[in-house]
Amino acid sequence: MHLVKRSLTTYSKDYSALARSYELTQSVTKILRTRDSRLSQTSSFQYALDNFRSNADGFFCSNQDVLSGPRAVVAQGLVLSDKAIVISLDTGGDVHETTDVGFCIYDKSRNSVYKIQLDIKGRKLSRKSGIMDNLLAVPLKVSPTQAQVFITRLFGHYTQLMKGDHDVCLVGHNLERDLKSLMTLNVNVPRALQKVDTDILCRQFLFPKGLNLGKLARELNVQETKPFHPSVNDAYYTIQVLLKLLSGTECDIPFENLKLSHEEYHKKLHRNLDQFEAMLQIRSLVKDVTGFHDEKTVDQVIKFMCNGSKRPRDFDMKTVMPRIYKALRKMERSVTNPCKNIPKTI
């Protein structure tokens, strides 16, 4: 796995920050490539994580002024075990391509916070995302393969800690979307890892119709130190929102009191992720069989396969190939959606 040299960003004029980003990329990718038998996977990845470490003093503590006005609550604070680890996740891009991944990880046992921004394919940060100075972490520039290796190692590292005596949970705002984005990078998050969605908590405790992360953070008086939208920033704000949402409740990490209320959410989440994984497999088959790589054309094929629906609806993988050929014949006969270059094998 080789480091791909590329332009880091076109909008930032902070050349020292660009140099730090390049050095960080070199350092971390070198660690990911290491096959030194003297270093276990866990210890070597912890060494990689230390590139992103900062002191956690005052980072995860209760705030007495949680809410004001009619929704004011008494802040009781969260009870964290000495081995508590909270992993906050946010992703950027669309359903077909993940452009960046952000993590903000609080590890109480190490009194550490790890803020990680993965920029994939040398993405140029737009004005909406903010220039380098608006990020809470120096970005790590990686290819999709490098991102897949890094994130897989990260979850593997914390899964090993969870098998010990650490209390680990994964947090996100609309977490299902972020997990689907990781699946497009061939990363599957362990099911044993407890998952908490701040969007669900928001609807349960405060706003039944829900709010996006930025609006919810402002309603909860979370101080905006950097702009919203970059993944690492949103991951950081998600942890702060989690704190505020649970400050007036009897919750502890690993959120034993939330398990019952999140039980149905977990079932629905894993069912949706299984269906999304099946869809990814179908899309891959469609691309292999047809040679089409345009996502809109692939969507058309799947739409014909599903009789107008965008969902696979319990496809038996044994019958997928005949369905693909049948869909292609339908597209070929369609007047409104003619499909050229149909494979001769059909």
UniProtKB/TrEMBL annotation:
A GO term, aspect molecular function: nucleic acid binding
Domain of life of the organism encoding this protein: Eukaryota
Pfam families: DEDDh_C (PF21762)
Domain Gfd2/YDR514C-like C-terminal: 147-244
Protein's name according to its UniProt entry: Gfd2/YDR514C-like C-terminal domain-containing protein
Organism (species): Cyberlindnera jadinii (strain ATCC 18201 / CBS 1600 / BCRC 20928 / JCM 3617 / NBRC 0987 / NRRL Y-1542)
